[in-house]
Amino acid sequence: MITEQPVTAVEDALHRRWRLLTPVYILLAIISLTGIVGAVLGAILLWQLVQNRTPYYADIVDEFKYGSIGAEPYSGIPYRIWRALPTLFPEHFGSLQDYSTFGFLYENDANGRQRDLPIGISRRTYRNVDVVWFNCATCHTGTVNATMTDAGGQQSTGRRIILGMPSNNLKLERFIRFLLDAGADERLSAEKLIPAINKTGPELGLIEEFIYRWYIIPTLRDGLLKRRTRLFPLLRQQPPWGPGRVDTFNPYKLIQADMPLASLQKDELIGIADFPPIFNQGPRENMHLHWDGNNTSLAERNLSAAIGAGVTPDSVDFDGINRVADWLKTLRAPPSPYHPDPRAVARGRDIFMSQCRACHGFQDSQGYTFTGEAIGQIEPNSKLGADPHRLGSYTEKFREYQLANFFVGTSHQFKYFVKTNGYANLPLDGLWLRAPYLHNGSVPTLADLLNPLEQRPVAFVRGSDTLDPDRGGFVAPPCVPPSAPADPFCYDTSKPGNGNGGHLYGVNLTAGQKSDLLAYLLTF
Amino acid sequence: MTEEIASAAAESVTPAAAKDVIFTPLKFNNLEVKNRIFRSSVSGRFDNEDGSLTQTRINWECKFAKGGIGAIISSYVPVLMEGRIIAGYATVHRDDFIPYWQKLGEAVHSFGCKFIMQLSHSGRQMDVPGVHNYARPTLSSTSKKESLHGFLCRAMTIAEIHYTIDAFAKGAWRAREAGLDGVELHAANGYLFTQFLSSGINDRTDDYGGSLTNRARFLLDVISAIRAEVGSKFHLQVKISAVDHNNVVPWEKKGNTLSESVQIAKWCEAAGADALHVSTGSLFPHPLNPPGGFSFETIAATYDAMISSGTSTLRNYFLFRYPILRPIFHWAWFRMKRGRPVEGVGEDDARAIKAAVKIPVISTGGWQTASKIRDAINSGACDGVSIARSLIANPNLPKFWAAGDDLPPSPCTYCNRCLLNAPKNPMGCYEPLRFANHAAMVEQLMTIYNTHPTLQVPTPQQVSP
């Protein structure tokens, strides 16, 4: 290349200086370019890291079903992976190839198509990644299959979703086991998962794929493996949970409280109980809440339940929780579809008012009355005689841990938890939706509950949402545990924690009295 | 004839002025000047690229001569083309230029004014190199770049020093041949002599660097060479900087002190100088010379003419042009001025030098007020003053004084816009406050072109090739 000679001495000197300093300038250019690129990338990264948003549902019913309580960031699953899991593990997702196989309930959208996410799964954009996980509706939305008359007198038959009732379909243990096993499955790797993600939606961009490959998938896998290591030894010592049931406090101890399994006592390891209904929370303020009545503050109980669902003090969405909690204060159970003989009801009411009302309040045409000398109080289990495992699963040691560690120094710091010696006397509103009965769901129907222990079913099928109008509860045919298939679930009362004893009130009534009492109870 | 006009001019002086020390003749060894006012060295790019002077220069000088000053010190007149400061200024490097200078002298003398040629060499302080010089670094005492603009240079060899000494001697001889009244060696303000004299610039290790004696050797050799060339009867004065203040660019060394300059002045006297002209600063322009304002808007419009002259000029241009950067230069420039007056900024320095020598001392630096000049002379600070900017503003300034005014009605504001326009535009007053409008200012600038030279049709021999 022919270069023109510089004309002036100054230009010549500048050229020489430029040649001499070219490497320095190039280096400086590289450094500044790197700095600029780094700053831009840093800004983008920072922007992504501070992203934390979730859809706001104007309709409180949608908020309850799909709104976030803040469980996603630390406990959830990335949305794209949630969608890809059925593709990756088809053998776990049944014929519909969706999460209904675990008892999650799907609704249809306005166009009649099944919604993307089931009830009880909320979505949040956290650090610019969409993550999904549980909300209140996960455990507190069930179905009932009945012929019902609505307010206008119209009759309808079929399966209905009832918000606030126990999630009688949800097979939570099976879902958890599936997820934890998936964490240990070779298919949950970038090589298999990314194609599955791409198959179930828009293909990941280069940067997105990079983030999924090197951060999201390994992080998810690590988290699942860690939880698997924690939970599986516990689950091995427990009978199967079955649908509609959960061990509230033991996984909470192992995961949220980080307690080693070995530090737990043998008699606290099985805390499996039914999901409770959450109707009419307002009148329940100051009552002993939870099956064992270990808390008298609605707000604290709600927050504790949210932690159980995966919320952490860092991720908690108080706005979401408070909106739902306010709404639940006055949420009434749908009226009972039963129409028993009014004369029998009147007779049964008399029996109830004299023998049951003090502990449970009562139902009349105005609705439910939440008053009674012992309503919301603890009935010592020495007197009640119910299965003690759930009571034993909440310990003084865990109470101390909760009080010392959650929301310390804030107005939300736990202070109402107590260790009790029995189970709480609960109001019975929406009783027709609450089968099977007792805290552990060990007695399938109201009729069975009025029977002495030896006449109560030893093993029965759980998980049906078809009403049993004769006995008050869901249809629960007997089963023989050793030979019963896994599905439908055969509930075996002989397993630890599944005992169906206790609450022997009314068992000595005559058959006629029991029939009258049942007639009254069917109106609840 | 010249003397007749001079006496006629003297007669025009009012009786009150007759006793005024300003209008008392100043007698040097070889020269008598009718009063104490000297037009200090100033000019514009009026001349031809080959160094021959033009009618415009004659017009320029006559403007001051007519105004009543005692003597004109010419603008810097390079003794070699390689020592040009700004191209387009007349030089004295060729014998065949003698007639031009003779004509200029004649013109100035016609107004009863003396004319002293300022012999100069830029050294590294070459603002606009011109076609002769742009392809080579300038010669200096040092090879270090000039500090403010980054002008390139190369340390002179001993042979080059001797050659340059000889050029000064020849320049003086040409001035005498042209009938001029004397010469002044421009040994101030950062040009070649300063580059030898200043401890802040001269980094030589030979006989021309190191001790003050060695640093002064070049100047003293030139004085001796001139005396050898023109004898002792031709007026020779030396302009020196009393203090270098070389650290305008803050990391530069301070340079020569007043006591060193006093010593240099004594040596000059001993070597045969007839007078001393005291200025300040080891670069030009300098915050203290000429003292006054610094118009960023003006220099932003003119400094582009110098961008190609140095390696730091583009940096300076940005500092001048962008208001956000101006405070940097403003700080560096004005920090030296704090606490100093504009008018008579060099009075104390001149006084110190005058106290050490017997020859007359001329002071420069903002002089404009008759009473202050009178006081300076009467108090023994100097024997006369040299003025450039105030005479550009009012060429007939002496007439105001002679009429009893202390200041002219529209005095120089020391804005220095004349200085900052020098590299690019015609010399004259650029102070907008002194003119009704821009057109009036331009009209003033154009007055020096009014008397056009006689144009001629060249003979074939005059046209080359």
Topology:
The complex is a heterodimer of chains A (524) and B (465).
Chain A: H1 9-49, E1 52-53, H2 60-66, H3 72-75, E2 77-78, H4 79-88, E3 121-126, E4 129-134, E5 141-149, E6 155-163, H5 172-183, H6 190-199, H7 206-236, E7 245-247, H8 249-254, E8 272-274, H9 298-308, H10 318-329, H11 342-355, H12 357-360, E9 362-364, E10 367-369, E11 378-380, H13 381-384, H14 389-393, H15 396-405, E12 422-424, H16 446-449, E13 459-462, E14 489-492, H17 511-521
Antiparallel strand pairs in A: 1-3, 2-4, 3-4, 5-6, 7-8, 9-10, 11-12, 13-14
Chain B: H1 2-11, H2 15-18, E1 26-27, E2 32-33, E3 37-39, H3 55-67, E4 71-78, H4 98-109, E5 114-120, H5 130-133, E6 138-140, E7 153-155, H6 158-177, E8 182-187, H7 192-197, H8 212-230, E9 235-241, H9 258-271, E10 275-279, H10 296-302, H11 313-321, H12 326-334, H13 347-354, E11 361-364, H14 370-378, E12 384-387, H15 389-393, H16 397-402, H17 417-421, H18 438-446
Parallel strand pairs in B: 3-4, 3-12, 4-5, 5-8, 6-7, 8-9, 9-10, 10-11, 11-12
Antiparallel strand pairs in B: 1-2
Walk me through the structure.
The complex is a heterodimer of chains A (524) and B (465). Chain A has 524 residues and is of the alpha+beta class. Chain A has a domain of 50 residues. Chain A is built from 17 helices and 14 strands. In chain A, the strands form six sheets. Chain A has a four-stranded antiparallel β-sheet. A two-stranded antiparallel ribbon of chain A has the order 5-6. In chain A, helix 6 packs across helix 7 and helix 11 packs across helix 17. The radius of gyration of chain A is 29 Å and the shape is elongated. Chain B has 465 residues and is α/β, with parallel strands linked by helices. Chain B has one domain: Alpha-Beta Barrel (TIM Barrel), CATH 3.20.20. Chain B is built from 18 helices and twelve strands. In chain B, strand 9, helix 9 and strand 10 form a beta-alpha-beta unit. Chain B is globular and about 55 Å long. The N terminus of chain B is likely disordered. Chains A and B meet through helix 1 of A and loops of B.
